[in-house]
Amino acid sequence: MFENLTEKLNSAFKKLKGHGVLSEKNIEKGLKQVRMALLEADVNYKVVKKVISDIKDRSIGQEVMDSLSPAQQVIKIVKEEFTSMMGSAHMDFNVHGKLQSSIMLIGLQGSGKTTTAGKIAFYLRKKGKKPYLVPVDVYRPAAIDQLKKVGANLDIPVFSSTIDMKPLYICQKAEKLAIEQGYDTLIIDTAGRLHINEELMGELLQLKQGINPSEILFVADAMTGQDAVNIAKSFDKTIDFTGVILTKMDGDARGGAALSIKAVTGKPLKFIGVGEKATAFEPFHPDRMASRILGMGDTLSFIEKAQDALDQKQAKELEKKLRKNQFTLEDFKNQIASVKKMGSIKDLLSMLPGINKKQLNKLNFDDKEFVRIEAIINSMTGQERRFHKIINASRKKRIAKGSGVSVQNVNKLLKSYTHTLKMVKKINKGGMRSLKSMLPF
Amino acid sequence: MVLNLFKKKKKSREKSSGVFKKLIQGLSKTKNFLFTDIDNFFSKKRAIDENLLEEIEEILIMSDIGIEITDFIMKKISKKSKKLASADELKELLKQELLSLFPEKSDKSNELIPSKPHVIMVVGVNGTGKTTTLGKLAIRYTLQGKKVMIAAADTFRAAAIEQLEIWAKRANASIIKHKEGSDPAAVAFDSVGAAIARDIDVLLIDTAGRLHTQKNLMNELKKIKLCCEKKLKQPPQEILMTIDATTGQNGLSQAKLFHEYIGITDIALTKLDGTSKGGIVACIAKNMNIPIKYIGVGESIEDLQDFDAKLFVNALFE
After folding, report:
1. With contact defined as beta carbons under 8 Å apart, do A336 and A374 qualify?
2. Contact A41 B277 (CB under 8 A)
3. Which of A172, A221, A331, B140 is deepest in the core (most CB within 10 A)?
4. For B200-282, where are the E strands, in sequence order?
5. Which stretches of A227-283 are assigned E, i.e. beta strand?
6. Strand pairing partners for A158?
7. pTM recorded for the entire structure
């Protein structure tokens, strides 16, 4: 269902080569593909309509550039349009440089407020703040317990609310206590509620007026469909929130809701949740989100992850060795370790454009393969690692025994190593490109 | 800006949200499902023209039914619509087409439980309402005079066990639990054993929410199912997947992957009391032939209702 938009556009624009300018007629087919992609990504119908007509206006009459194919050109326009719609660069929480501040989290049931509360607290503590978690969900069974446990796991203090307290009372009490104890940022976890529940929306408003939070963050599930506009608009109308957090972004949802929410509220998207752990919390990047919604992969995140994992010094040393053709099995192992640091291969591949999700699921690549390779190399002597040619049949048997694999596995590894070695000799350039060819598949 | 686009819609929504008054029980609530706005412009006088067809397309897409099915239905009705005289007739046609997306009802949903214990595993993505649905089901079965047991196999999320304990108390059901962080498959295995020993009619197994794309967690679910099967000597009779009505096109991917790993027998569409139409289940029903069994339309116990495609489509258009 979610094939790559770039591919679709390419085929739609195949005939366009040689035409001088983009005209209404010749981009029609391509825009139809863009529209489909956006609707499949859950961007709201009306937002799609508006975006498509804007793109059309901008595209028509543009000369087909030499450097870009017509498909690329339209994509460029689409991406620019999207990125500008989704707001400028990343915005942090508005709590820094303040003596005392509070962040209130609001949203529908099950959107991920409590998990997000823990993540924000963890993030702010890293930034030198002293967060204080305040559970005010007195309705859902065991909701307070949940935040207490989240706090305990992260070693972040939690106000001891009980279900017989009124939410506003909890907040006021917590505020007082925070000042006494020296906590500077309150993180208020409200109960999930429907945007059409007037009574509960009134309660939120009361909380807002009572404690005047520096940030009110609307927590939205990335998987939300067309109704995202109504939900976000209702919350914004009543509460006038200050920013948005998009959760469950680690799934395969394209997250068109992000665009819809931004379009109707104009409020900045600040952070995204990408997993259940407290660290699975990342700044929001409009350009990356644009690519994701369009189904074009997240190349930037991939590059960033790769940069994070590769130790620059190590990389330079490796480069030297490669130039001298001194790439040993030990280096091979180190390379694999740094690839491993970037996360699972599947996650990495899924970020690249042109990778079909369906095929990826079929690929079934086992990340344990890396563990096996490391084990095999660890079972070699230093001499064997430096001079792989001395590894004969009896050495192979010993290595296999030592690492708990079969001799075939050892052979396979040696084969892919010698293959890499050949490649290195051929390319002899170093950096990412050789790293790619080193992967044993 | 785009903001203006939404102003028109608002009025009709305000009107329809009045329907949600707690007083009006049952079907009137499900009225909002899928087709709210349709009646407004299907008058006898209205001619079938481009505008009407475009509006129908808009409503279908806005219901989250998906572009694929929207195109499929639009093709069908616009072909046939040429022979029709008025919008009124088109409504009938549209109704039929929408109805045909759902699999034939097998009349299984309320039949007596043939084998004891009847094991229901509740699965789904995080925050879709598994525990609440399970709690409501427990009360429902207790009210039917059944002996109900609940298994707390969500050992991962903080305070999930505590949440379930509160539901068990409300439902007057027994609960089987281990410590937080223990093996959920072991909880499931023990619970089946306990259910057999204590002559339980219905065993409801709560599982942790998980994203369908997380291979390890999905394999864990498989293991939970297998452990039940081992003790029960047959697979759990029901594997109920909860899908949040606000979910968009990702719902299909969720259902597909859960089905691939453990085989879903039914779907509960939760949180239909908002303004979302939940159209994605029509897409799931059509693509995967899995029946929609329940709908959740609120937080109280009577708000878990049987889903009946025919009944509600008829009630909407009569």
Report:
1. yes
2. no
3. A221
4. 202-207, 238-244, 266-270
5. 243-247, 269-273, 281-283
6. A133
7. 0.77
Q: What are the CB-based long-range contacts (under 8 Å, 24+) for A416-424? A: A416/A440, A417/A329, A417/A332, A417/A388, A418/A388, A420/A327, A420/A332, A421/A325, A421/A327, A424/A322, A424/A325, A424/A327
3-state secondary structure of A396: helix
- pLDDT bin (cut points 50, 70, 90) of residue B18 is very low
Q: Strand B118-124 and strand B202-207: pairing? A: parallel
Residue of B nearest to A192 (CA): B127
Check A40 against B20: CB less than 8 A apart.
Answer: no
Residue with tokens 């709210």: B36
Of A108, A226, A276, the CB nearest to B62: A226
ipTM of the modeled complex: 0.84
Name the amino acid, one letter, at B222.
K
Any chain A CB within 8 A of the CB of B159? Answer: yes
Distance from B6 to chain A by nearest Cα, in Å? Answer: 8
Q: Nearest 10 degrees: CA dihedral of A264, A269, A275, A281?
A: -170
3-state secondary structure A157-186: CECCCCCCCCHHHHHHHHHHHHHHHCCCEE
CB distance A288 to A337 below 8 Å: no
* Nearest-10 Cα torsion for B92, B98, B103, B108: -70
Tokens representing residue A175 in the block: 């505020």
Pick from A108, A141, A254: CB nearest B246: A108
Distance CA B34, CA B315 (A): 12
Out of A256-265, A340-349, B33-42, B79-88, pick the least confident: B33-42
Residues of B within 8 A of A225 (CB-CB) are 64, 246-249, 251, 276, 279-280
Task: List domains and CATH numbers for chain A.
Answer: 3-86 (1.20.120.140), 101-294 (3.40.50.300), 303-438 (1.10.260.30)
Residues 229-288 of B with CB under 8 A from A: 244, 246-254, 271, 273-277, 279-280
Query: Closest to A145 (Cβ–Cβ): which among B128, B162, B274?
Result: B162
The pair of three-digit structure tokens given for residue B103, joined into one six-digit string = 């699999």
Cα separation, A165 vs A149, whole angstroms:
19
Which contacts qualify for B220-223: CB closer than 8 Å, 24 or more apart? B220/B184, B220/B185, B221/B123, B221/B258, B221/B261, B221/B262, B222/B261, B222/B262, B223/B185
Looking up tokens 């989290």, which residue turns up? A105
Residue B184 phi/psi, 5-degree rounding, is -65, -30
Cβ B212–A196 below 8 Å, yes or no?
no
Q: What is the pLDDT of residue A13?
A: 67
Residue of A nearest to B158 (CA): A146
Answer for the pair A415, A376: CB distance below 8 angstroms, yes or no.
no
What percent of chain A is predicted at pLDDT more than 90?
47
Tell me which chain A residues have a C-beta less than 8 angstroms from the C-beta of B273: 194
Q: Which two tokens stand for residue A198?
A: 């007037």
Name the closest residue on chain B to residue A112, using Cα atoms.
B127
What's the rounded Cα separation, in Å, for the pair A17 and B167? 64
Q: What are the φ/ψ torsions at residue A376 (nearest 5 degrees)? A: -65, -45
Residue in B2, B159, B250 nearest the CB of A253: B250
Token look-up 């209205």 returns B46
